[in-house]
Amino acid sequence: MNRLAAEFIGTFWLVLGGCGSAVLAAAFPEVGIGLHGVSLAFGLTVLTMAYAIGHVSGCHLNPAVSVGLWAGGRFDGKDLPGYIIAQTLGAIAAAAVLYVIVTGRAGAEIGGFASNGYDALSPGKYSMVAALVCEVVMTAFFLFVIMGATDKRAPAGFAPIAIGLCLTLIHLISIPVTNTSVNPARSTGVALFAGGGYLVQLWLFWLAPLLGGALGAWVYNVVADKK
Question: DSSP class of residue 201?
Fold first, then answer.
C-alpha cells in the first residue's frame, strides 16, 4: 500500500505541475513560460518525485513506464494492475483539483485543458499517423533512458536528473504534435474534464505509449547485453 500511495501522490504531482503549468501559467502571455516552461515543468515533476519516492515505489508515475519496466524484466507483473490504477487515480485527482482552480476565475473556460489529441485537436494539426508514430518513438526513448540511467552499471544517484531532462526534451519535441502524452494516466486525467473529442481520441494515448514503453525497454536490453 505504501508503494501504491507513493505512485498516487507522484502522479498527482506530475499532472498538477505539468498540466497546471500549461492551463494556468502558459495561458497568460504576460507570464511567458510558453512551450519551454511547460516542458521544464513536466521534467521537474519527475525529477523531484524521483528523489522523493524513488526509494519507495520506483517512481514510475506512468503506466507506460510500469509496462516498459515489466517488459524489460525490471518489474514484477503481479504489481502492474495496482500501479496502473494508482497512477490513473492520481492523475484524475490532480485534474479535479486543477479544474477547481481554473474555474475559480470569472469567465474562465477550460478549453482543451492540456489534453492530448491529433488532427483538429493536435496543437499543430498533425495527423493520427503522425501522432501515433510520435508517441511510440518518444515513449520508447523515455524507457531507453530510464533503463539505462537505472542500470546497476550506471553512476549512482544521477538517474532522476537524466530522466527528468529526458522528459523535458520529449516535451520540447512533441508538444506541437500531440501536446505530449507518453503517459496514459496523464492523458486520462485531463481528458475526463475536457470531454468531447479528447475522450474519443484517448485510445491512442494508451496504445502508443504502452507499445513504445515495451519497445524501448526491449531495445535497451538488446543494446546493453553484457554478452
Answer: G
Q: Tell me, rounded to whole angstroms, the distance of Cα 227 from its chain centroid.
A: 33
Tens digit of pLDDT at every position of the chain (227 positions): 899 999 999 999 999 999 999 998 876 766 678 889 999 999 999 999 999 999 999 999 999 999 999 999 999 999 999 999 999 999 999 999 999 999 998 877 888 999 999 999 999 999 999 999 999 999 999 999 999 999 998 988 899 999 999 999 999 999 999 999 999 999 999 999 999 999 999 999 999 999 999 999 999 999 998 66
Q: Which grid cell is 132?
A: 501515433
CA distance 195 to 154: 42
Q: How far is CA 144 from CA 24, 29, 166, 200, in A?
A: 31, 35, 10, 29
- Please provide residue 212's backbone torsions phi and psi, each rounded to the nearest 5 degrees: -65, -40
Question: What is the identity of the amino acid at 96?
Answer: A
Task: Provide the whole-model pTM.
Answer: 0.94
Q: What residues contact 49, with CB distance under 8 A and at least 6 apart?
A: 9, 10, 13, 14, 59, 61
- What is the rounded CA–CA span in Å between residue 171 and residue 203? 20
